[in-house]
Design brief:
Blueprint: H1 3-11, E1 16-22, E2 25-33, E3 37-39, H2 52-58, E4 63-67
Parallel strand pairs: 3-4
Antiparallel strand pairs: 1-2, 2-4
């Protein structure tokens, strides 16, 4: 078990970790609870763990979806394309 998996197990008990593929790039999503979906997006420079107090309390009424936005936590970090003003 990685340090990240241990943190999720400790701070978000009962939640499930998975990676989803977005255009060939992995995005970490942690889900838990029951009810209508509630997507909770963190700011910069945080990760999904910033929601651990609130997510656990809302999980009895909502299906909580906690992604690590691109470039944060365990989600894909975009790289710079040399010679272009764009990121992968």
């Amino acid at each position: 078990m990685t340090i990240f998996e241990r943190a999720d197990a400790s701070l978000l008990p009962g939640f499930t970790r998975r990676f989803i593929d977005i255009a060939g790039r992995p995005l970490l999503v942690v889900t838990g609870g029951k009810g209508p979906p509630l997507l909770m997006l963190h700011g910069d420079p945080q990760t999904h763990l910033c929601w651990h107090h609130l997510a656990s309390k809302l999980a009895d009424r909502f299906s909580i979806v906690l992604p690590d936005i691109r470039g944060r936590g365990e989600s894909h970090k975009p790289g710079h394309i040399e010679g272009r003003n764009a990121y992968l």
